[in-house]
Write a structure and sequence with these properties.
The chain has 149 residues and is an alpha+beta fold. Helices cover 34% and strands 32% of the residues. It contains 4 helices and 8 strands, in the order E-H-E-E-H-E-E-E-H-E-E-H. The strands form 2 sheets. It has a 4-stranded mixed sheet, with helices on both faces. Strands 5-3-7-8 form a 4-stranded antiparallel sheet, with no helix packed on it. Helix 2 runs antiparallel to helix 3 and helix 3 crosses helix 4. It is globular and about 50 Å long.
Length: 149
């Protein structure tokens, strides 16, 4: 399991390759978020942010058969088109990989302590939490799925 909060960009192919080396892996699902339209600056609390992400990944591992996982979130000044986040999940089966990847991303948006400031033409402004992000995370509430086996 890799969790990294970093200023530097990442290489999707390399990251996916690192979690799919086992012959037991039958699926890798990944998500890459990209900065849209306006430049932004992301801030976070070092240590606290990584611990929060680790808890999200542990919850995903408790719900689905996750063999390996990589979560990379960037911080600092980012421009439109820059990669901002990677979630990649390896599993024996695609359903577990897809679900765990989506769950992790939904919870990153609502639970990980990041603050975004957009650089708009009228000046910089902090981005407020979105109700749609909370709704996406809320759908995972309820009984957790037990691991097979």
């Amino acid at each position: 399991m890799k969790i990294s909060v970093q200023a530097d960009d990442f290489d999707l192919s390399r990251e996916v390759g690192e979690i799919s080396t086992s012959k037991s892996v039958g699926a890798v699902a990944s998500f890459v978020g990209v900065v849209r339209e306006v430049a932004m600056t992301l801030e976070h609390y070092p240590g606290m942010t990584e611990n929060s992400i680790r808890k999200i990944v542990e919850e995903a591992r408790a719900r689905w058969q996750v063999m390996d996982c990589s979560v990379i979130h960037r911080y600092g000044a980012l421009q439109p088109g820059d990669q901002i986040v990677l979630v990649a999940v390896a599993s024996a089966h695609r359903g577990d990989a897809f679900a765990a990847c989506e769950f992790i991303m939904d919870y990153l948006k609502t639970q990980a302590p990041f603050w975004k400031k957009e650089q708009r033409p009228g000046g910089a402004q902090w981005v407020e939490a979105r109700a749609s992000d909370d709704q996406a995370a809320d759908r995972w509430q309820g009984p957790t799925r037990k691991k097979a086996g």
